[in-house]
Amino acid sequence: MSQTTELYGELVFNDHVMQEHLPRATYKLLSQTIKESKPLDIEIANVVAHAMKEWAIGKGATHYTHWFQPLTGITSEKHDAFIEPQSNGSVLLSFSGKELIQGEPDASSFPSGGLRATFEARGYTAWDPTSYAFIKDGVLCIPTAFISYTGEALDKKTPLLRSMTAISEAAKRVLALFGKEATQIATTVGPEQEYFLVKEEDYAERLDLILTGRTLFGQAPCKGQELEEHYFGAIRPTVNRFMAELDAELWKLGIPAKTKHNEVAPAQHELAPVFLTTNAAIDANLLTMELMRKLASHHGLVCLQHEKPFEGINGSGKHNNWSIAADGTNLLDPGKTPFESLQFLVFLTAVIKAVDEYQGLLRMSVASAGNDHRLGANEAPPAIISIFLGDELEAVVRAIINSELHESAGDVMMNLGVPVLPTFIKDNTDRNRTSPFAFTGNKFEFRMPGSEVNLSDANMVLNTIVAKSLTDFAEAVEGASDFEKATRAYLKTVLTEHERIIFNGDNYSDQWPIEADRRGLLNLKSTPDCLSQFIAPASVELFERFKVLSLAEVESRYEVKLEHYSKKVNIEALTTIRMAHARFLPAIIEYSSVVADAIASKKAVSETLDTSAEEDLLTKLTKGINTISAAVAVLENSLAEAAAVEDSLQNARAYLSKVIPAMDAVRSAVDEQEVIVGHDYWPVPSYNHMLFYT
Ligand code: ADP
Ligand code: MG
C-alpha cells in the first residue's frame, strides 16, 4: 500500500472502521439507522460509543467533543476528558451511548436571534451519524446538530438536514412517476475553496487583517493580476510545502482533497475536494478551512479566508457544485436513452423554476458584509441571479418552448440532429465563468458563495426550493392518463414561464443589469437589501411547508444575520479609526517633520537653494493629515449615529449608507499618502510587499 492509501481516513471512524470494530449485529443496525436517518437506539449507541472510545484511545485521543455549527457559521467544540475518577484514586476511561448521542453545551453565549428569550431554550447537541466522527488534536469529534429543548434549530446543520429530507421525499415522488424506487436520495456538494496566503510577519503588522480579516487600507500594488501569470502558475516552494502538509492532514481525516492550484490574484490559491453528500461535504469544508488556518502557521504563513482581503485584485469565492443522486446515480446526468433524457429534463426544469421563483432567497443565502465586496465587482458574478445552460442545452430548452418536442423526448434530439442528449452536453467545454449559476455537464455550479461562508444556508435554500418545484411537478402530472404527454406539456409551460432566468451572455457587461431589469430579475446589491427576502411571506410559507424552518426560526436567523452584518461593519469602522490615529497619522506627521527639517536645514545653508519640490511635498502631507483627521471625525460621527439606531434593519442600513462611505473616505485619504510617504516611514506592509513575497 502506498503512504497515501495507508494514511487516508486513518483518523475517521468511517464505515470501514465501524465494520471492523463493531459486533456484526450492531454494525447492521447502525448502518440501517444511518441509511434511513432514524434516531439511534440507546442500546446501539452504548455499543458504538464503547467501540469508538477504544478506537480513539488507540489513536492517542484523551478527550471527546460534540462538534457543531452555531449560527455564527463557524464550528464550536468543548473538550471533555474520557476520565472517570475512581474511589481508589485511579481513573477509568469511559464514554457512554448517552454521551455519544447527546451533549449539553451551555448555549447561552451563542447567537439565537431571540429564540432563547421566546422559548427559554436550553440547547443540546445531537449526533449526526451520517457524518463520521473523527480525531482532531487528540480529541474525538462527534459531528452534531444543535437544537433547543423545545425543538428549535440553533445551528446551521439542523435545517440543512431537514432540507435534505425534503428534497429526498420530493425526488422520490418524481422518480416513482418514472417507475423507479430509490432508497437513498441525497444532494451532493463539491466546494472549491479559494484563499490567500500572506507571511506571518506582515500579518502581525496589520491590525486590520488581524481584527477584520481584510485590509482596510492599502494602495493597489504596482503590478496586479494583469499579466495573468499567477493562475495555474508554478506554486511557490513555501506554499507547496503548506499544501502538501494540508493534503496529508485532510486525507487522514478522510477528506478527499483533490485539486490545488494558484488562483488569478497574486498570493491566491484554491483547493477543490471530490464531492460528498451535502452535510458531510460542508463538515469537511469547515474542517478544511480550520486546517488551512492552523497549518499555515507551520510555514510562517497566515491563511486569509475573507471574501475580499485586498482591494483592486480578485476576492475569494467558494463555488458550490451541486447535484442530486439517487442510490449513487446522478439525477442531473443527462442519461443515455430518450426516456432518461426526459427524466433529466424534469430535474433540470425543476432547478430552473426553483432558481427563478426564489432568486431573492438564493441571493440572501450568500449575503454577508464580506461578500458584498465581491458580488457585483468585475471578478465575481454580479448580484443578479441567472442561469447559464450552455448553447446546446439552451437549444433543447428553446425547442421545448417552441413545441418542437412533438412525440417523445427523443425526438427533440433527433430534430436537433443529435441522437442522444448526453454526448454533446457532457462534453460541453464552453464554460461561462461569469455566470452565478451554471450548468456544468452533470451538476450546477453556484458561484456566488464567498470563501468564508458556511455553505449550509445556500444548500438549505437550494434543496428546499428544488424540493418545492419537484413537488409542483409531481402534483401536476400525477394521475395523468398519458404521463409522457403530460410531462412534455408541463415542461413547455414551466420553461416558457421561467425562460427569463436563463442567460448565456457576459454577466459582467454593463448591458446585463439593464437587460435583467427589463426581464424583472432582482438585483439586490447589499446584505441589508436582500435579508428581507428571508422573512418574505413566500419564503416563510416555503420553509414551513417543507418543515425546514418554522416562522420563529426564520425570524431568529434573520435577526442574527442583520446583527452580524452591523457588528462586522462596526468592528471595521473602529479598526479604521484606531489605525488612522495610532499608525497612519503619527507616521505622516513624522515624515512631514522630516521634510520640514530638510527644508529648514537647506535654507539655513543658503536661502537661494530651491526647496520647491520639498515644499510641495510638505503641502501635500499637511493637507493629507488634515483630510484624514477630518474624515476620521466624520466616521466617528456616522458610527455614533448608526449605533443609536435601534431597529435592526435600519441599523444595518445605517451602517451601509453612512458608515461604509465614511470608512472609504478615510481609506482613500490614507491611501493617497501611502504613495508619497517614504517607505521606511510607512507603518504597515504595502500590497506590493505582502502579495509578492518569495
Ligand atoms: P471546475 O472546472 O469548476 O474547476 P471541476 O470539474 O474541477 O470544476 O469540479 C469542481 C467540483 O465539482 C469538484 O469538487 C467536484 O468533485 C465537484 N463535482 C463533480 N461532480 C459533482 C456532483 N455530481 N455533485 C456535486 N459536486 C460535483
Ligand atoms: Mg469552478
For the sheet with most strands, the description reads: 10 strands, mixed
Integer tally of domains: 3
Rounded Rg:
28 Å
Count the E strands: 19
- The tally of helices reads 26
CATH topological fold name of the largest domain: Creatine Kinase, Chain A, domain 2
Strand residue content: 5-15%
Task: Provide a short characterization of the protein structure.
With 694 residues, the protein is an alpha+beta fold. The chain has three domains: 3-155, Roll (Ubiquitin-like (UB roll)); 163-549, Creatine Kinase, Chain A, domain 2 (2-Layer Sandwich); 565-691, Up-down Bundle (Four Helix Bundle (Hemerythrin (Met), subunit A)). The protein is built from 26 helices and 19 strands.
How would you characterize this protein structure?
There is one protein chain. By secondary structure, the protein is an alpha+beta fold. It has three domains: 3-155, Ubiquitin-like (UB roll) (Roll); 163-549, Creatine Kinase, Chain A, domain 2 (2-Layer Sandwich), CATH 3.30.590; 565-691, Four Helix Bundle (Hemerythrin (Met), subunit A). The strands form three sheets. Strands 10, 11, 12, 13, 14, 15, 16, 17, 18 and 19 form a ten-stranded mixed beta sheet that branches. Strands 1, 2, 3, 6, 7, 8 and 9 form a seven-stranded mixed beta sheet that branches. The structure holds adenosine-5'-diphosphate (ADP) and magnesium ion. Adenosine-5'-diphosphate is lined by residues 188-190, 192, 259, 272-275, 319, 321-323, 330, 442-443, 445.
